[in-house]
Amino acid sequence: MTTQIDAGLVDEANQQGAAHLQADYDHLGAVLARRGIDIEAITEKARDFAVAVPSWGTGSGGTRFARFPGPGEPRNVFEKLEDCAVIQQLVRCTPTVSPHFPWDWVDDFSELRQHADALGLGFDAVNSNTFQDQPGQPLSYKYGSLSHTDPAVRAQAVAHNLECIEWGQVLGSSALTVWVGDGSNFPGQSHFQYQLERYLESARAIYDALPADWDMFLEHKMFEPAFYSTVIQDWGSSVLCAMELGDRARCLVDLGHHAPNVNIEMIVSRLIQFHKLAGFHFNDSKYGDDDLDSGSLHPYQQFLIFNELVDAEQRGQAGFNPAYMLDQSHNVTDPIESLMNSAEEVQRSYVKALLVDREALYAHQEANDAMLATNTLKAAFNLDVSPILAQARVLEGGAAQPIAVYRASGYRCAVDKQRPSSGQSGSGIV
Ligand code: PSV
Ligand code: MN
Ligand code: MN
After folding, report:
1. Domain ranges of the chain
2. pTM for the complete prediction?
3. What are the Cα distances from residue 366, in Å, to 35, 359, 377, 382?
4. For a tag site, which of 220, 269, 289, 319 has the least CB within 10 Å?
5. Cα of 358 to ligand 2 centre, how many Å?
6. Who contacts 394 (Cβ-Cβ below 8 Å, separation ≥6)?
7. Which residue, 217, 88, 109, is CA-closest to 171?
8. Minimum-distance ligand 1 atom for the alpha carbon of 429
9. pLDDT tens digits for 24-65?
């Protein structure tokens, strides 16, 4: 396997920080031991944790006002994978990449798979794109795709989803994520029920074509690009459609796709209860679909979501196997740094949720002791689990301090020389 960053640099940095990490780890181990928790068992769980990187997150995202490309941005999916390999080399909890088509379209998908293999990467869910018109595309998605009033546009959108499945099969993926921007911008513009019926008919054509080992993830989003109504605007519409389609259709929760203050952890619990949780697009937001870095604004919310996930995991909920993916847009940071940091923040929430004294929590819930119940969650959330995360990375061959090593490596500067800017702003990143 080719490594992107000199392995010697990683080892050297780890050795330099080893004594401090061991001291911090031992101290945390003693704190956890007083709570009856074995730090080694938690570190093992941290080592097993994985979250997929979105291929589109490796370039600067931009907004509808402007995109400010950074140096050495990947110009194609091969280079995107190389950046993803840097992330995985240093954080060791991002072994897969979620591709987006046609942004990541290539002539030869076996070659792409080989490239990923050589970099030690696999592929997670593939994403279709019927929210943009592509060059040379016969029919426009201006008025929708899977729910368009014109059957020919719907057929084109269905066909694209089917080709995404074919490409994904070559890559070794086993899930298709479908997010559509279909909706309306004016009251009266669309008939809500007819529009959803059309969506369902198209979604059924995709669902029926799924290979036996594939799942279909329905991603809801409240608004944007449609500003009055969106066809799959919330988890209600999403779960109704998933129930109509069948067991292999489930709901994908993107944290930025809800109204402000919505109780997302409770939505997660409901989806788990009814076996309809597909997985996540992790990110953070203050206003809407901001696509800010995971845990940068609402780390407690992210912890509460993982509290539900760990609860389900520990109760052995049947069929519980959510897919974890990042979905972020990086505008003012180096995307590699943001993705490394975000992966760590998602892993941090998971590890903290593992520390919740669940028996105590259940007892406080039964006794209606709101104060002790909520403090039981806080007792886990308030612990700094950084030494566990660093230790897990080091044991997996990654870097205790990923961003420091990444900066010391000069990777961005090196690829800037190899990847002259195309001068285009539309590098498949929106
Ligand atoms: C839409 O806002 C979304 O969250 C979907 O997951 C898309 O695939 C992705 O962003 C593309 O930017
Ligand atoms: Mn998303
Ligand atoms: Mn989004």
Report:
1. 51-359
2. 0.97
3. 21, 11, 15, 24
4. 319
5. 31
6. 14, 21, 400
7. 109
8. 12
9. 999 999 999 999 999 999 999 999 999 999 999 999 999 989
Please write the tens of the pLDDT for every residue from 293-346.
999 999 999 999 999 999 999 999 998 999 999 999 999 999 999 999 999 999
User: Atom 6 (ligand 1): residue with closest C-alpha?
Assistant: 179
Instruction: Considering every ligand atom shown, identify the ligand nearest to the alpha carbon of residue 224 and give its number.
Output: 1
Q: Which ligand gives the minimal distance to the CA of 280? A: 2
Give this complex's ipTM.
0.99
List of long-range contacts for 28-36, beta carbons under 8 Å, 24+ apart: 28/383, 28/384, 28/385, 28/387, 28/388, 31/383, 32/355, 32/383, 35/355, 35/357
Alpha-carbon span 127 to 105, nearest angstrom: 11
pLDDT band at 270 (very low <50, low <70, confident <90, very high): very high
Ligand that lies nearest to the alpha carbon of residue 56, given by its number in the listed order: 1
Task: Determine the residue of 222, 238, 281 to mutate for testing ligand 1's pocket, defined as the one with the most ligand atoms within 8 A of the Cβ atom.
Answer: 281
Token pair of 139, please?
């029919």
- Pocket probe for ligand 1: among 221, 327, 330, 429, the residue whose CB has the most ligand atoms within 8 Å is 327
User: 3-class DSSP state for residue 182?
Assistant: coil
Residue owning the nearest CA to atom 9 of ligand 1: 327
Quick one: which atom of ligand 1 is closest to the CA of 127? 8
Q: Which CATH superfamily is domain 51-359 in?
A: Divalent-metal-dependent TIM barrel enzymes (3.20.20.150)
Q: Calculate how far, in angstroms, residue 327's C-alpha sits from the geometric centre of ligand 2.
A: 5
